[in-house]
Specification:
Four Helix Bundle (Hemerythrin (Met), subunit A), flat, two-stranded antiparallel ribbon, two-stranded parallel ribbon
């Protein structure tokens, strides 16, 4: 079995422990006919629904409420599938590892594009967010293979915290809170600032973690020196 699929998982998010307890509580009460793959599909459909709601918010900001509701559905589908498999002891480590990260990449790209096509975020800003997420994800997968430890996040903020922050911004925008401004002739919103700030923080976190990983690997595999004849 590939090492990445069985690597030790490390969660350092602020809400990791209470979220884990809540997910296990829900998983133990789901009907037997509900399977992990059903939840995975639910999460993917919710991601496309979120993107559609953001696009439709060009016509009516009320769609932001739908986007927030679907973010909750996406959390359930995205986070509960693995928990359900572990609770029922029906894990498929390699299958689950591959499927989970594939659909995560698709879902986050779709949501980022949907946000960029809304009136509340520049498309360029949405693309910066998608690229930053994908680069961090690639680094996580490389670390897992190289170190045998799957570190799910960078710092104390993870996907759940990001969803809650996005729901808070959706609520403010739906209620008509003036979050827009103009900079150098370009119309921006606070959401643009938040996303760009988050992307900057992600880049800094990547640099710090990559440096630490390289130090660890360099200690395991010291550089050789070419001996000269003399």
């Amino acid at each position: 079995m590939p090492a990445a699929a069985t690597a030790t998982r490390e969660k350092t998010f602020l809400l990791a422990r209470p979220e884990g307890r809540a997910l296990e509580w829900i998983a133990r009460r789901l009907p037997a006919r509900v399977l992990p793959d059903h939840l995975t599909i639910l999460g993917v459909l919710a991601a496309f629904g979120i993107a559609a709601a953001y696009v439709l918010s060009n016509g009516d900001s009320a769609w932001l409420w739908a986007a927030s509701g679907l973010l909750v559905v996406h959390w359930l589908g995205d986070s509960l599938d693995g928990t359900l498999a572990r609770v029922r002891k029906i894990e498929r480590p390699t299958y689950g590892y591959y499927l989970d990260h594939l659909v995560d990449a698709v879902a986050n790209a779709v949501i980022g594009i949907g946000l960029g096509l809304s009136p509340y975020l520049l498309l360029a800003t949405g693309m910066v967010l998608v690229i930053a997420y994908l680069v961090l994800s690639i680094n996580t997968y490389l670390e897992t293979q190289a170190l045998g430890v799957f570190r799910l996040g960078y710092g104390r903020l993870g996907p759940t915290e990001a969803r809650l922050g996005l729901i808070a911004l959706n609520t403010a925008l739906a209620l008509g809170v003036p979050l827009g401004f103009e900079l150098a002739g370009v119309g921006l919103t606070v959401l643009d600032v938040v996303v760009l700030g988050a992307a900057g923080a992600m880049a800094a976190a990547l640099a710090v973690r990559a440096a630490g990983t390289l130090r660890t690997l360099a200690a395991r595999e010291p550089a050789g020196r070419v001996r000269t004849a003399g």
